[in-house]
Automatic annotation (TrEMBL):
InterPro entries: Glyco_hydro/deAcase_b/a-brl, NODB_dom, Polysacc_deacetylase_ArnD. PANTHER family: GLYCOSYL TRANSFERASE-RELATED. One of its GO terms (molecular function) is hydrolase activity, acting on carbon-nitrogen (but not peptide) bonds. Residues 22-65 are annotated as: Disordered. Residues 22-31 have a biased composition (Polar residues). Residues 44-65 have a biased composition (Acidic residues). Pfam families: Polysacc_deac_1. It comes from the Bacteria. This is Peptidoglycan/xylan/chitin deacetylase, PgdA/CDA1 family. Residues 98-278 form the NodB homology domain. The lineage of its organism: Bacteria, Bacillati, Bacillota, Bacilli, Lactobacillales.
Length: 295
């Protein structure tokens, strides 16, 4: 073999050796720096794309929703203070005008939890007005805590369902404040609404309820206390077809078996009549900024 052939083979080996390096492996310090820079830029671009892909929540007007706005509920309704019965839209809000409010008194006696569970299945909300006497034992506290944790508003319906005009101011104070204390003990929150037994308030109970941060609330109609309507079918029919059902109606019901049985059909029937069953959390109540009430 001549010298030129040896030279050719030697050169070929060197070339093959050089080509055998990993294509991603730099052969100089400058090449390594270039690769490091490219890798860093690629990682930065990926992180920026991930951040940009997280679209912010926006309001209907297109503005971003702030964290404070996310946590704050906008009140859309208020109790009509002329009669404390009807629920009226607040001007300037986007509140639906054809609405109804569900309320259940004398809870939690026997069926309140079942009523609440039924309402959850129906995606409907209500106020459960409690008598404090049902919250004096652990079972009652646990029941009302469960109802509260389901997202329902808990209202004050006095301690023993006493007729307020027939008792002293000191007794009225105990009837109202003790119940609020028990509700707070069970749920961590004091009631925002007060419904007097029989709808009978006094000047004193009105002032006291407001001082305690509660709005008065009566009702527009209710029938389940009447013997004629202590049947699920009869109760459903009258609740849906009475001429008292109008926009803003505040429906009075009680913790009773026939009411529990009628509740799904009442909710369904209201919706078939195009009534929105409003969430009580959207109803404005008294903003209590005054000092504690004193006798």
């Amino acid at each position: 073999m001549n010298k030129s052939k040896y030279a050719f083979l030697f050169t070929s080996v060197l070339l093959l050796s050089a080509c055998g390096n990993d294509e991603n492996t730099p052969t100089t310090e400058n090449e390594q720096a270039a690769v490091d820079s490219k890798t860093k830029n690629d990682e930065t671009t990926t992180e920026e794309n991930e951040v940009e892909s997280e679209e912010p929540e926006i309001n209907e007007d297109g503005s971003d929703i702030t964290e404070e706005e996310n946590e704050q509920i906008e009140f859309q309704y208020q109790v009509n203070t002329e009669n404390y019965a009807y629920i009226n839209p607040i001007e300037g809000t986007q509140a639906n005008k054809k609405i109804a409010l569900l309320t259940y008194d004398d809870a939690p006696d026997q069926h309140a939890l079942e009523i609440a569970e039924s309402l959850v299945d129906l995606d409907a909300r209500a106020i459960f007005f409690v008598n404090g006497m049902y919250l004096e034992d652990d079972e009652g506290k646990e029941t009302i805590r469960k109802i509260y944790d389901m997202g329902f508003e808990i209202g004050n319906h006095s301690q023993t369902h006493a007729s307020l005009p027939d008792i002293s101011e000191e007794e009225q104070y105990d009837e109202i404040v003790k119940t609020s204390d028990l509700v707070e003990e069970a749920t961590g929150e004091r009631p925002r609404f007060f419904r007097a037994p029989f709808g009978s308030n006094t000047d004193y109970s009105t002032e006291l309820a407001h001082e305690q941060g509660m709005e008065l609330m009566n009702w527009t109609y209710g029938y389940d206390w009447n013997a004629e309507y202590q049947d699920a079918d009869a109760l459903t029919d009258i609740m849906l077809n009475t001429n008292l059902l109008v926009s803003g109606s505040n429906l009075l019901m009680h913790d009773r078996q026939w009411t529990m049985e009628a509740t799904p059909d009442i909710v369904t029937g209201l919706r078939e009549k195009d009534y929105e069953i409003i969430d009580p959390a959207l109803i404005k109540s008294v903003n209590n900024e005054s000092e504690d009430f004193e006798l």
